[in-house]
Amino acid sequence: MPKLAANISMLFTEHSFLDRIAAAAAAGFRAIECQYPYDHPANEVASRLAAARLEATLINVPPGEGEAVRGFAALPGQEAAFDRSFARALDYAAAIGCKYIHVLAGRTAATPEAEAAFIANLRRAADVAARSEVVLTIEPLNAHDQPGYFLRTTAQAVALLERIGRDNVKLQFDFYHCQITEGALAEHVVRLGDCIGYIQIAGVPGRHEPDCGEINYPFLFDLLDRRGYEGWIGCEYRPAGGTLDGLGWAARWGIGPGRGR
Question: Which of 33, 55, 139, 209 is labelled catalytic?
Answer without folding.
Answer: 139
